[in-house]
Amino acid sequence: MPPSGPSSSLCLRVPSGYKYAGSQLRLRLRPVNSTSRSQTTSRSRSNTDSLRPSRAFTGAQTFNPLRPPQPHWHQTRVYQTSPTSCPTSSTSFVPSCSSSTRPSPSSSSRSPFTRSPIYQHHNQPRPIWLSGIMATATQTRAHAGHSHNHHDNVYLTSQNKNDAGVRITRIGLFSNLGMAIAKFIGGYVFNSQSMIADAWHSMTDLASDVLTLATVSFSLRPPTDKYPSGFGKVESLGSLGVSGMLLAGGIFMGMSSLESLYAHFLLDPAAAHELLHHGHSHSHSHGAMGPSIHAAWLAAGTVLVKEWLYHATMKVAKERKSAVLASNAIHHRVDSWTGIVTLFVILGANFLKDATWLDPVGGLLISFLVIKGGWGNTVSSLYELADRTIDDEVKRSVRRQVMKSLETVTEGSQVELRDVSGIKSGQNYLVDLELAVPGGWTVDDSREVESAVRTLVGGKVRGVRRVRVRFVPKDAADEISKFDEFIPGSVSPQSSPEPEDDHTIVIQSDLHVVSEAKVDFDADFGAQYGLKKGVLVNEAEGEVFAPVAMWLEAIDLVLSRLKEKNAPLNRVRGISGACQQHGSVFWNHEAERLLGGMKEAAGLKAHLEGALSYSYGPNWQDHSTQKQCDEFDAALGSKMRLAEVTGSAAHHRFTGPQIMRLRKKLPEMYANTARISLVSSWLASVLLGAIAPLDISDVTGMNLWDIQTNSWNKDLLELCAGGPSGVEALVSKLGQPRQDGGGSMGSISPYFVQKYGFSPECQVAPFTGDNPGTILALPLRPMDAIVSLGTSTTFLMITPKYKPDPAYHFMNHPCTPGQYMFMLCYKNGGLAREKIRDSLPAASGEDKWANFNKAVLETPPLDVKDESSDRAKLGLYFYLPEIVPNIKAGTWRYTCNAKDGSDLKETTESSSDKWPVEKDARVIVESQALSMRLRSQNLVHKDATTHPDLPAQPRRIYLVGGGSLNPAIARVIGDVIGGAEGVYKLDVGGNACALGGAYKALWASERGEGETFDELIGKRWKEEGAIEKVDVGYKSGAFERYGGVLGAFGEMEEGILKVAHN
């Protein structure tokens, strides 16, 4: 059975001459060079085009099936706020994020932007924020802006859409109403308790008729974007309701009849009279006189009417194969049977002596029939809801019509019908066909076949409402399973930390999303700029960078897509952002004038490309600055001293070493540079229409800012600028950072007001880096940690203690003075895990991540089953030069004593203790977690109040990014690092930094006097629904076992660092 779960449909537009040979494409294809008959009826392709014979469509977008979609999106997400929490006069802001937490399985890059929240204004006091992000991802985007509508949004077989079912149900409804009234009057006049009881039964039948009428009418509605398969399942639900009434009525009738028989035959007359009187106290008694014989005529008339309704309703039900009509027909038959019982009771009372037992005996027989009919229809309805395949009779009819249609098509004899399947949805049949065509056929050839098949099947097979055709190459070497489109059901998330998509996010004061849009850098700009994973690479020098012009185009594109989605941009009241840290943009002396003169007619690229002294922005993966890093580390005497001053030792990606290298390499460019922005302040500048200052948190990722004195460090500026004489010019280029992370830097540029409809009152707040944005995604408490699992891996904590060390980073909190962000950043995160995943032996077609997870979970901690004999396994798996520790690319494996970490030994190919590759799956995850525990152990302490019996460890660990979805990784992180209250997945997927940026915007505009970020967001943030516990965290025994080898792990790193330093 194929795995269950949400299903999706894709429509790929390909060149009309595209051939099937060798590609085994099994998606529905549309030619790109056809002409639509109507380009104005719909802006997007209808999701019901398989419901009618197709028309051609417009557009010319080529598609290369051999080149998979690449990462880098810019997506916009919109959140909503409470109606009373933000006054209309206040100013709010939201972040534009970069992708530090982006899951891209094969991507090693992180794009330059993160999310930009935007705060919106409208007539009611409901502010909104928009958050934008640019990062890497591996997904396909929709054809935004192109018309793909081939067909009217109607069902295939309009000739089947008669109202027979509705009409017969209405007749039954009015008949029941009329008969109920007649039985009440007749029962009273003719002194028949049975007839009065039957009148009450007829009244309950009205509920069944109303339910049937509602579901039959609703199920005939045409499909919509929200319900692409139509509303046929509503009829199945209605059938369950009617069948439930039958079952309940049958059971009640049977119990009542048994009670009456028990009283009649087993109790004395007085007790029987009391029991029967109590059981039928609702009857209208006229004394001891029996019913009049004239009541029999009325009973016989109701039997005839109900029998006619049964046959008429069942005829329509069989024609239309409607379960709910069949249930209602059975209900009519039950009423007919009860009418017969009533008739015999009346006749028996008039012609037989003591015939009261006839009523319960007849009722008991009828109850069995009612339960049987109700159960049968219940099972049938449940099968329909479970999407059981269509019956063989319908399949045979479809096959006949397909074969007939192929006779009418040129070269139809070359087409093979491989499979007919489908599901029943109420009265509708949703049919799937698999046709095998020659590999040399083009999409146009297949479209002719598809149209002919859909027309004839829809017109001749009653009830068929949709025909979907899948084409496969006739001469394919391997048999293609019809279930190959299903994703394996086993858990197999990507383990990368960069988010699957990048967002521009809009929120309201209650933190709810309103709208979103996205851009995929490679898919949208890859061919234009020659990108790979969203960046350009100069391997010879270790340079990794991206075109700034592409970023400008991406801003326009994502806002256009947001506008197309009717996001209320006119109500946006503020914008902020969180962008890729450390990256830089170099402005020339024309920048201020060009930023202030942007007009709606031209795009941002046309306006601002001339404002740059350097056309590229260095990317965080750049590793071209080792020489400069060595000089920075030595400038203040040691790495430790540099970390004490700036919060970090020198790193390749940090902005200070990057500026120093570019100054030497491109002196003319540097001389022509008027201002240098970080990516966060660059994006803020574009939106502001003026150069924005650096952010107080982001500036601490440059190796130039003295955190303790809160100023530029003179010695480091001299080093970067080439001597004391260049310091003044460098300070002028950098400007002074903005100390306040909130507030407004000014109104949004008129360009965005005129082109996208932003409010002129929309304010721009300070933007920050992606990692600081991530810690703002929830109100962190002391001792909480965030682990971002993606292409890189990041460990974040908030602390009031400034304890710098060359092994990690300390940065200013983006919103709270006196608080610091502790950060570990590893290049070899998701990419390294993927390399191990791909190296594991697996059966053909087996899901790789499921195989990886199995290997992780089946291996005990450190692969130690017996401490007395087994040695603990440790390793470093660096497929890229690592940041922490600063070691070259390579793989190292070691073993040590499992109890205390002693006797550390390297394992080589010839070693006796060499382990199989399957063990690497757990060892790599453990090694990444051990490194985080080793470097954060001085920041955690024993919680004597809440958890006095537990060792020092984080209170909670929050996972974000693609790897947060992987239960095996979550389990190992809990084993190694602990988590006194557990390990949680922050339910924002890979968009934590976008969400944090949005929250920053909200705080910036709505904060009260002295109100901190955590105080404001903490009041509004609801834990339920925002986080999910994925592991218990601390496990006694396992946590201590890892603690025993922590020293050996550090010793291993130090030894490797001596021989493989970058």
From TrEMBL:
Compositional bias (Low complexity): 34-51, 81-117
UniProt-recorded Gene Ontology molecular function terms: D-xylulokinase activity; monoatomic cation transmembrane transporter activity
Membrane-topology annotation of the record: Multi-pass membrane protein
Lineage: superkingdom: Eukaryota
Protein name: xylulokinase
InterPro entries from the UniProt entry: ATPase_NBD (IPR043129), Cation_efflux (IPR002524), Cation_efflux_CTD_sf (IPR036837), Cation_efflux_TM (IPR058533), Cation_efflux_TMD_sf (IPR027469), D-XK_euk (IPR042024), FGGY_C (IPR018485), FGGY_N (IPR018484)
One GO biological process term: D-xylose metabolic process
EC number: 2.7.1.17
Pfam families in alphabetical order: Cation_efflux, FGGY_C, FGGY_N
Region ranges (Disordered): 30-123
Catalytic activity, as annotated: D-xylulose + ATP = D-xylulose 5-phosphate + ADP + H(+)
Residue span(s) of domain Cation efflux protein transmembrane: 171-385
Keyword set, alphabetical order: Carbohydrate metabolism, Ion transport, Kinase, Membrane, Transferase, Transmembrane, Transmembrane helix, Transport, Xylose metabolism
Gene3D superfamilies membership: 3.30.420.40, Cation efflux protein transmembrane domain (1.20.1510.10), Cation efflux protein, cytoplasmic domain (3.30.70.1350)
Enzyme superclass (EC): transferase
Family: Belongs to the cation diffusion facilitator (CDF) transporter (TC 2.A.4) family. SLC30A subfamily. Belongs to the FGGY kinase family.
Stretches assigned to the Carbohydrate kinase FGGY N-terminal domain: 620-771
Subcellular location: Membrane
CC annotations in GO: cytosol; membrane; mitochondrion
